[in-house]
Amino acid sequence: MKMIQNDLLLRAAQGKPIKRTPVWLMRQAGRILPEYRAVRASVSGFIELAQTPELAAEVTLQPVDILGVDAAIIFSDILVIPEAMGLPYEMIEKKGPHFPEVIQTVQDVQNLRIADPETDLSYVLQAIEIVKKELDGRVPLIGFAGAPFTIFTYMVEGAGSKTFSKARKMLYQEPELSHQILQKITDSTIAYLKAQIRHGADLVQVFDSWAGILPPAQYSHFALPYLRQICDAINEVPVTVFAKGAYFALEEIGQMSCQTVGLDWNMNPKTARKLVGENKTLQGNLDPCALYDSFDNIRKMTRQMLAEFEGKPHIANLGHGVYPDIDPEKVKCFIEAIKEFSN
Amino acid sequence: MKMIQNDLLLRAAQGKPIKRTPVWLMRQAGRILPEYRAVRASVSGFIELAQTPELAAEVTLQPVDILGVDAAIIFSDILVIPEAMGLPYEMIEKKGPHFPEVIQTVQDVQNLRIADPETDLSYVLQAIEIVKKELDGRVPLIGFAGAPFTIFTYMVEGAGSKTFSKARKMLYQEPELSHQILQKITDSTIAYLKAQIRHGADLVQVFDSWAGILPPAQYSHFALPYLRQICDAINEVPVTVFAKGAYFALEEIGQMSCQTVGLDWNMNPKTARKLVGENKTLQGNLDPCALYDSFDNIRKMTRQMLAEFEGKPHIANLGHGVYPDIDPEKVKCFIEAIKEFSN
């Protein structure tokens, strides 16, 4: 295996001494960059872009070259897992994902297959290989997947929602069926993350984007056990868990066998540190909207954010994906401020 | 002033001894009841219903008679305040509120007027008077308004949003202008709540529905000072603050001069009690989706919820508005379980 020249992210994730804080951004490969929009305009849509390895690799590499981040994250989507399990989706412009068919019955659950990443998701694995070759060890590559509960919400609800009441109704009305779906998603996700690692991912992140819609007791029952299975199964590379909105579960997440815990912008880093404990790296968490502010203020807020994490392992990031209308120069300002002030 | 026969809610809000826990539901006057849908079908839309005092009063009274709740809450909308300030809105079926014009410039802010409730919002005040007469002292009537920050988001964003990034952008780019808007909303809201009280409201609740989209520091800066002004200005009746998602601000909210703090279904009642302190009543917080479960399980979960609040002043409610497709019999089951188990 080739040595990674800038291994700040991997060292930070392992709690090793580092000379400055590493930084990357969720959704760094995306609409903020004109270079991305040019590639995106050359294909029919988001899904075609994600499924074309050469193009997915190209947009994955863009922020490394253009923004100077300390890691690449493979350009893909968390919803490739339902698709690989037999539930295809479409991406509707300005509206988001839509599943023509959703999971409702025992029969639907039986029809779901466990994803075989080498065949069902080979396009992601090929993109990973191209990226690794092009990166040539400059920075590590992050692989990712959705957390089982978040994937479950889409498979049952069929689309984004304000309340996700259809998905949450199933948890109450059909708890056993819900567990069966969650287990199938978990098995698929473990296979998928392991395949990403075999093909070159140096670290993997699990996104529980809808964690915040559950009461704490339900999150402990329907989400955490499956996250735990994933963390326990992945021993090859460091694992990051980002459970957006699950402030109430930080203590339990802190006890899982992941290396890094992602924080959203609502979470207070010092409170989070107390709940998560001393043995994990924390990742985050500047408000994505802070990048609408002036260059001066961005530098000020970034410095303040670093101070809140100071003294313990930290990977700098926003508290959520970067918003598409943010000026790339403001993103660079954030990245450079991290490099300057954490030195 | 006429004595209120069932004064459990008012006694609970004042921390006085009560013989059982009072219960009401956010959105109890609404689509869950066929009787509401019949009235709603007789008018052109939601806004016409809210603006017709006789009909607004009728749907306000329905849950008292049909569900047996311990309070009525006036049927209205938090967005009457922007409208009274000069920014009308429309309610788009299945999409939600939409403001044809939004606040962007200094001129827009100057054009905003402070609402004069006796003229601009007389339809709400008339509805309150009808309800009070019809209730004839059976249960107290709750008045309400949106919190300044939540109203601000609609006035700047123009509609609901996943990220509210336009409204939040203004907080960063135009902090002074944002404060001016927030102050005008606050002045309007205080006048409006005082008018509701003069016309008969026995308690008022302030809904900060979008509290959860701000980082803690911004919430302290742009939301709490205006909530505090409202709490300090209203001395006539008890005040409830419900800041959905603002778990990070519970300690500061606990120091405000309100009587009751509402909890959403993510919040752990015991943790919340520690943060809020001993001197307030807590309100909430069963997961609204729990009412999709069986009658037996609803009784079990309700009993468990009561136990988590036990020993300190509590007003039972869901952690958010009741969802429109919940069976009214399940709602009754929740209400009856509160009455039975807290006795």
Write down the overall mean pLDDT of chain A. 97
Strand order of the largest sheet of chain A: 1-4-5-6-7-8-9
Task: Please tell me how large the radius of gyration of chain A is.
Answer: 19 Å
Number of strands of chain A: 9
Poorly predicted sequence stretches spanning 5 or more consecutive residues of chain A = none
| Alpha-beta content class of chain A | alpha/beta
- Report strand % of chain A: 5-15%
CATH class of chain A: Alpha Beta
CATH topology description of chain A: TIM Barrel
Order of helices and strands of chain A: HHHHEHEEHHHEHHHEHHEHEHEHEH
Total helices of chain A: the number is: 17
Most strands sheet of chain A: 7 strands, parallel
- Straight-line distance between termini of chain A: 29 Å
> What's the helical proportion of residues of chain A?
40-55%
- Assembly type of the chains comes to homodimer
Task: Please state the second-level CATH architecture of chain A.
Answer: Alpha-Beta Barrel
Shape call of chain A: globular
Write the layout of secondary structure elements.
The structure is a homodimer of 343-residue chains.
Chain A: H1 8-13, H2 34-41, H3 46-51, H4 53-67, E1 72-73, H5 80-84, E2 90-92, E3 96-98, H6 106-111, H7 117-120, H8 122-135, E4 141-146, H9 148-157, H10 165-173, H11 175-198, E5 203-208, H12 216-222, H13 224-233, E6 239-243, H14 250-254, E7 260-262, H15 269-276, E8 281-286, H16 295-309, E9 314-318, H17 328-341
Parallel strand pairs in A: 1-4, 4-5, 5-6, 6-7, 7-8, 8-9
Antiparallel strand pairs in A: 2-3
Helix pairs in contact in A: 4-8, 9-10, 9-11, 10-11, 11-13, 16-17
